[in-house]
Amino acid sequence: MNQAYAVAAVTAVVLATVLIGALGLRISRTTSDFYVASRSVKPGLNAAAISGEYLSAASFLGVAGLVLLQGPEMLWYPVGYTAGYLVLLVLVAAPLRRSGAYTLSDFAEARLESPQVRRLASLFVVGIGWLYLLPQLQGAGLTLEILTGAPDWVGGLVVALVVTGAVAAGGMRSITFVQAFQYWLKLTALLVPALFLTVAWLGDDAPRARFAEPATFREHTVVTVDDTVRVDLDRPLRVTVTGTVDDRRHEREPVALDAGVHRIGAGTSLAFPAHARVPEKAGTDRTGASSWSQPLASSREEHPLYATYGLILATFLGTMGLPHVAVRFYTSPNGTAARRTTLVVLGLIGAFYLLPPVYGALGRIYAPELSLTGEADAAVLVLPDRMIGGLGGDLLGALLAGGAFAAFLSTASGLTMSVAGVLTQDVLPSRGVRHFRLATVLAMAVPLGLSIVTVNVPVADAVGLAFAVSASSFCPLLVLGIWWRGLTPPGAVAGLVVGGGAALTAVMATRAGLPGGGWSHSLLAWPAVWSVPLGFLTMVLVSLATPHRVPATTAATLARLHLPEDLMAKDGTGVGGGAGR
Amino acid sequence: MRSLMRSQLRAAMVSLGALALLVGSLPLLFSLPEVFTASDLPSPAPFVWAALGVAVYPVMWLIARWYVRRAERNERAFGKLVEGR
Amino acid sequence: MTGIEIAAVAAAGAVLLAAGIVLGRVTARHGRGDLDLGTPVEHATFHTLHTASLAAPPLRAGLTEDTARKAARRLRSLLGTEALCLTDRESVLAWDGPGGDHHREPVMRRVREMLDSGRSQSVRTDCDDLQCPLRWAVIAPLTGEEGVLGALVAYGSRESAVLVRAATEVARWVSVQLELAELDRSRTRVVEAEIRALRAQISPHFIFNSLAAIASFVRTDPERARELLLEFADFTRYSFRRHGDFTHLADELRSIEQYLALAGARFGDRLKVTLQVAPEVLPVALPFLCLQPLVENAVKHGLEDSTDEFKVTISARDAGAEATVVIEDNGVGMDPERLRRILAGEHTASSGIGLSNVDDRLRQVYGDDYGLVIETGVGAGMKITLRFPKYRAGVHPSSPAGQGRRPGPRTGP
């Protein structure tokens, strides 16, 4: 694909983000405009901002990639991302807004009045934020590698620098406008090419995507494998090889490969004839230098129902605990607006999620070799070139590249701001603008370092891991804190440590590739099924065991969380005392 | 005040129940081959695509809209109750 | 009239009647009555009431030497005793009648005993002076809101149950007067405090000037005059809220907007205002009337001290977990030394009260890190920067100021 267009598109997106962030304040120069300037943010605008920030690389690229690899079962990811907002609306939205909290650690302090819980919550916020940032940077690296052939750490570095610079320099002065712009940009970037691609597909006699059987190459395709990969052929295959296969070097010579496992060296090009089957990767290669392992995929195959429910629980219950989700509620003026905003968010992200499956299915047909090279996340980016080609393909590809970068930037900036805010308030000693800048650098540096060092995992899966930790730690805290009078600080601490800690350990083990296979692997790869109930149970039991530690102001706090604001204003403290009717 | 919390919690539970029933049961549904051998669909794939790719989103949005309406109605009723005193 | 006052008057009436009847009996022994002009009892009652009405006014001002002196004379004639004195808890305030010289000391000792028990006592005076007619004393407590304020001591030549009774009743009546006096005083205090608070919140100058400006539009542009009046009404309603509440930044900005509309009506084109708002910070809770007085200060000095065009810029930005508000103007500025003194609380002129008041309140609610940051110089305008944390325990837009508290000690490296 034409690099120039793509790079231009990416640059344009970056510039637009920075500019709108810097200038997108409401400016009024005459007193008659003040009315407009000081009105609260409408639910529609805030909802677009929330959606823009929420739709990350996982949504833009990852879902399509996973669908390409494993079929429509992967659609549970976007369904889960959306359903998570429904659960948030129903259980958390209005009370969280009414608590006045900006971050989740603020909520912990507001509800439980305990600095220990606050500090522990802050640690989890930072941890989950980093877990979520990591795949964004990796996705950016992949995108830039596809576009420009740069090494995969460059993309992550670019995003990190842009975001850190913008946030630390105080440029993100108007998050709402920036993120709202990002949403519409992403939607357009995904929608327009999808329309063209669908037309092209129809024009091609609408071939069907098959997931039950291995994909086939539509035409003669040359695939270059960047890293060593082992493939498992179930029938003999004839390919033209330039490179190393089974430790034998070939120079553009046709090779007949028997059924069975073969090892293809790094940098090898294979030319497949039309209608040849795409070889499947042979299990997970842990001994070789393969940098793209798919641990979750294997366990998904072994225990699909368990894995699906693990994913469902993680995404349904984890959205409420993500750092960049909670802070966006602060912008709503009151609880009712928060609820309505969330309703609009559901509509906006639902509309968006109609599109990635299209790309996934088309990718299966037209770019099946991505499963071989392990770059399935790039499906969205390569399709225009594959299917349409020429200038149109270049332009559409550039649009998609810009959209993808918008996805990285928006989510990364939202996460960085939240994590930096928490670091400034709760971890670094004193406050002030200077320390916020330092915190921003710190917030980005750790995931950046990790992204260079750790193994790449498909983006959507990596994000799912962050969801699992969030669901096991903050979901019990929020749900029990908002709806149960009996929650105590020791209970909250125990629940966070046990539930969140268990999920975190499982996630870490999975990413380190520790357990081999079977149930132990599945349990650790999808911890939500057991870690969420564990978190809830621990919180409830320990709270019941420490009834004397129930905060004295619980009744008043709960009144504030649940009563509509106008009633609170009229009754004042009388309502708190009148509670318990 | 407890009455308001109770009614809001009830609305929430109904919504979650609907979600669990309509969406959360789908994996079980998909894994039942009998459903599909009974009908003349060759594979469950189109149903999965239709359900997960398109159908769940309007369903979830409708559940959400029902909940928002219900919650606001609960709050209004409670407000009248409190002020009528 | 409040319930207390009605009860007080009723009690006073009852006491007077009792005292009158006692007096009537006492005086009736010595005279025959004329039915048309009143029996001796009736005369005595009239006399009692008249005397009582003359004794009342001084005591309404409280129990002091001055008032006690005036009242003691009347009270003595009311009771018809040989001598009467009024004391507070420490010393004799007034003495009416003979024997004051040698009885002042011992009486305080007796009064102190009575103070402990709080009940009337009747004692023998044990006076060594054989000429002194004061042989018996009745010490009755005078009570106020907070307990026993002093004593009324009535002296007689012999022990008399009537005297005890009468003295006790009169003491009770005097106590009622003193309680009424305290009520008066505290009501005055409250009203004064409210007036002071109001005057701090709205300057009378501003009201006068705004109304004058509105009036000037009534004939020429009645629609505008009406709009300005409505703005004025909203503005004063907001400003009359209790001083210690919290409010949203959006509300505070609206109040500034109304103020500027009113000030703009007066100054017209000379006032140029720019507002830059990041909408995310509009819900931030901050102490009530933190920003509007600063803007008012800036406008007042900028426009009234010079005739050039005056520009004010108010900007609200999102800074992570805080909101930053900057109020900048291009007016005459202030000498930094003077500013330092104002913020330290040594202000003298009426200007600058707003600055130190806002600074104090911010520090009180959020801690010393969150005071005002002001950059200024003579002729160089002024730039005030305020920071508000988006969340602080105890700060809610409906809570009174007492609940906002400073952060606890933070552990850290």
From TrEMBL, chain A:
Keyword Protein transport: no
Keywords, comma-separated and alphabetical: Cell membrane, Membrane, Symport, Transmembrane, Transmembrane helix, Transport
Subcellular location: Cell membrane
Protein's membrane topology: Multi-pass membrane protein
CDD domains xrefs: SLC5sbd_u4
Keyword Zinc carried by entry: no
Transmembrane segments: 6-25, 45-69, 75-96, 117-133, 153-171, 183-203, 306-330, 342-362, 395-424, 436-457, 463-484, 491-512, 524-545
Pfam families: SSF
Family: Belongs to the sodium:solute symporter (SSF) (TC 2.A.21) family.
Protein name stated in the entry: Cation acetate symporter
Organism: Streptomyces chryseus
Origin organism lineage: Bacteria, Bacillati, Actinomycetota, Actinomycetes, Kitasatosporales
UniProtKB/TrEMBL annotation, chain C:
A single GO molecular function term of this UniProt record: kinase activity
Domain of life: Bacteria
Tagged with keyword Glycoprotein: no
PROSITE patterns: HIS_KIN
Keywords: Kinase, Transferase
Pfam family, any one: HATPase_c
Region described as Disordered: 394-413
SUPFAM superfamilies: ATPase domain of HSP90 chaperone/DNA topoisomerase II/histidine kinase
Start and end residues of each Histidine kinase domain: 291-392
InterPro entries with a match to the protein in the record: Bact_2-comp_sensor_kinase (IPR050640), HATPase_C_sf (IPR036890), HATPase_dom (IPR003594), His_kinase_dom (IPR005467), Sig_transdc_His_kin_internal (IPR010559)
CDD domains named among the record's database cross-references: HATPase_YehU-like (cd16956)
Coiled-coil ranges (or none): none
Name of the featured protein: Signal transduction histidine kinase
Protein source organism: Streptomyces chryseus
